[in-house]
User: Fold these one by one.
Assistant:
Number 1:
Amino acid sequence: MVKFTSLMKSDKYDAIFKLNHEWLSSKTENDNEYFQKLYKEQNPDFLYIGCSDSRVPANIITGLDVGDLFVHRNIGNLVSNNDLNTMSIIQYAVEHLKVKHIVVCGHYGCGGIHTAMEQKSFGLLDNWLKNIRDVYRFNFKELELIENEESKYDRLVELNVIEQCENVIKTSFVQKSYLKYGYPTVHGWIYDMKNGKLIDMDIHFEEMLKKVQKVYKL
Ligand code: CO
């Protein structure tokens, strides 16, 4: 096994293909048809929306395998209704893959959230960070009362997950599918990078749906 992190930068590129070979060999060792079976179709039960951070890889932190998760990642795990990419992924996951669960996973130590808390401009990135700054504004009173900066930062990570869960529920695809079939349900998770633990925030999906439907019934 190649020890990737200990390699010189110049050797890392080629090492990826060696690692790929080792990985595919491990998969076909006991099952010759492993890739042929996967090639035929995907049938994941979960859509995972998380942060692009290299330290929060969806399949690895959940211990899940190839084919288990439909994944979308961006800076700050945001669900913005004018982002065609995220909206298309949610529609495809709900209407075609018929996923049973949609997870929004944030993480403590998120660089996107931290950057958004800074009172300065970052050029193009400001358009994206605006979504996080909106979450700060929606929860201004609560956040301004927190004096400890680290605690405030952690709380914004949590509030952002809750807000993005609401944004998922606001979509017509999720509302229509849930009312017709009883799925998908939406979950908010936090990944704690300090200890590797996944935390289920236990958001009240049914309550959120009812609230959202009073305003955004689609
Ligand atoms: Co992040």
Number 2:
Amino acid sequence: MSSINYAEKIPNNVNLSEDRKLQRALESWQPHYIDWWKEMGPEGTSTSEIYLRTAISAEPDGWAQFGHVKMEDYRWGIFLAPPEKDRKVNFGAHKGEAAWQEVPGEYRSMLRRLITVQGDTEPASVEQQRLLGKCCPSLYDLRNLFQVNVEEGRHLWAMVYLLHAHFGKDGREEAEEMLARRSGDADKPRILGAFNEKTADWLAFFMFTFITDRDGKYQLCALAESGFDPLSRSCRFMLTEEAHHMFVGESGVGRIIERACQVMKENRTDDVRKFGVIDLPTIQRYLNFHYSVTSDLYGAEVSTNAATSYNMGIKGRYEETKIGDDHQLENTTYSVLHPVNGGFQAIEVPALNALNERLRLDWAEDVAKGVERWNKIIAKHGIDFKLTLPHLAFNRAIGHFSDIAVDPSGKVISTEEFARRRDEWLPSESDLAYVLSLMGSAVTKPGQFANWIAPPARGINNQAVDFDYVRFA
Ligand code: BYC
């Protein structure tokens, strides 16, 4: 059941050939996807062979196979995690009922909206990252970028399959729209804010995969709890791929920090820019930016949308079934920080309305642990500097903090002061220009690394660090 059939035009483990109508619909979407990939996917890669992992089975222990693959020959497809016997709806008004294999009619539009929002982020991130290959710091990093890109492409397939299989004409239209929007486009932007930002350099890419892919993890975990079983199974399989993306981000930033610290020590100076590496205060400003922009992805702190989708049983909490409460939350409250009279106050609100905030805090705690691991690298070098996460109200565009100006420590300030001091806290034009100036041309000799980043501790899939992860034609 879970092994993937690669003999078909669209590899899948959902017996696609048994549903001719659906198969035809997806086969007619497939060339549009390929056209989109050629136009908006990683640039200049069509003939290179990349050491990629490809799913061969959706079972936990056997799905990854590694080998050199031409990007254009990559086989995207539809893979769901194996079904769980007698799975139930585990929360909300339908708690205890059998999980749904079809969309309950009255929940169609809410489910379609969530699947569309999730799906839209996937091609968006590929678009954001499409030029990075031209300035890669090594073949190892180039391979990781392409691995992330092909998997985001497959995550789009996962959501498009659900739209086609369960939402009829509306779903097919949404699937087409997914290929029509463009990250950062003034007329047809991607749906969520962070996915319209630029990812112009590798520090931004690593921050994005560390922080924003981690939002992906938490949102997918919440959707994996869904009573709509096909969504749950899709998200569970997507999560197995997401872990590598966050590793790429965390280790990438860690290696940039490592290199900065080496140069600081060797030259006994904080002023490392003249040695062509990225200084720690610039890394802090990138962290502030990506953290605040990604905080917005959780929506408003108090949200009736979130309450409704929980009540319906379609989007749960992080690790829902491990939480020891009634999983209905009708009579519970949750404390949410509000801006009040120039400061902040924790106010109890109905727990159902606070679900976005709760997921955001789960994510924030996880991000903070990663930042602590980065701080250990700095401490190991005996350098007196600590990266910190800004206050959750800092630089927000969505939710109830979006109307106030706050410095990274959480002090409420005037909008004039924020504008005046913005460049102390967020990457300035000159920070961005400096980091971009380091990117230069691609480093493509096996085992070589750009000056601004340390090599990784080990290679991919037990290969050496100087393995030829990408072979150019
Ligand atoms: N930008 O009640 P509210 C990933 C909209 S990342 C623009 O607060 P709700 C990945 C909202 O849509 C994970 N608009 O929101 C990572 C709503 O609009 P409508 C992606 C925003 O519904 C890296 C209105 O504001 N997955 O996978 O409770 C690489 C009122 O909103 C934003 C998901 O997000 C924003 N930031 O929560 C690749 C999961 N925030 O409907 C991939 C699916 C809110 O009134 N999505 N709005 O026009 C959801 O669960 C929810 O839609 C949200 C919003 C959590 C995003």
